[in-house]
Design a protein that fits this description.
By secondary structure, the protein is an alpha+beta fold. The protein contains seven helices and 18 strands. The chain binds pyridoxal-5'-phosphate (PLP) and 2-OXO-4-methylpentanoic acid.
Amino acid sequence: MADTNIDWANLSFSYMKTDYNVRCTYKDGQWGPVEVSDSEYVPMHIAASCLHYGQESFEGLKAFRGEDGKIRIFRLEENAKRFIRSAEGISMQPMPVEKFREMVLKVVELNKRFVPPYGSGASLYIRPLEIGISARVGVKPADEYMVIMLVTPVGPYFKAGFKPTKVCMSREYDRVAPKGTGSIKVGGNYAASLVAGEKAHELGYSVMLYLDPKEKKYLDECGAANFFAIKDNTYITPASESILPSITNMSLCQIAEDLGLKVDRRPIRLEELETFEEASACGTAAVCSPICQIDDIDTGKSYTFGKADEAGPITTKLYNQLRGIQNGDLEDTHGWCDILPE
Ligand code: PLP
Ligand code: COI
């Protein structure tokens, strides 16, 4: 049963202490056993490579409680594969998919009472992270690593939830370099996005929409979420080497096809914003967050999409289909959910 003291329906996207986290250390050329901890702290060497040179990567996936009482974990394997690519991208030891799976299943099992009840709209966010823990003063990869997985129950990432939100764009900010680390999920990318994110919030926007860092002509992504738009019964989403390949976006592309839409993944010129019928951010935390307006804060130009108080019809269909599969209300025809063994 879910814990009864939590106001599940009003959770925000923030950290809450749960019962346990799990940890695994790579040492002497091998991954050790999965350890269970009830501490929220990590003792480490003051010269650890994660502290000095940013050897850190992370993931984000969610567990949902269905009406049938079962707990479903969405796209565990895709997150495991991206966790490997991120580790390789900053010269860390990649964790095998099976070890990743063992850790995810264990941390969810140990914190089952924090998986929100069916119908609350909330979910259990699972946050795996990897850090280099060897002492380093010269710039060189560690040879010892630790993977930690913590969980926390969460509500919507953007305050509005599934209500349209406003975003801004500017040529003054990049989160990554053209051939840099944008396509992997490493902490440094997020540090580099904080100033732009705070600027967007200060001006009253949910998030900064980034343009491609090389030419500033194409759309990249929306803070910690990908971007998609709808036009002429087509799901359009940017192709770019400086964005994170979102697993939610990949799933929505498949759902769009299943619903009879065309899917077009290609570079999207900024001017094309004028022609879109619907626009949205998407990601594990953001799910589908409809966008009603994009303001170019350099030129003062605004682009609007659909109604300001209601998501567009196709975005709504895509959202309902995705949430239906995650909750177990709709058949999981693509095998995206791992059901937690009872
Ligand atoms: N883009 C960035 C920069 C992100 O941090 C995230 C979040 O993980 C996403 C996109 C969405 O990816 P996913 O759908 O795999 O969560
Ligand atoms: C996610 O969607 O899982 C993210 O990682 C977004 C963010 C909170 C960094």
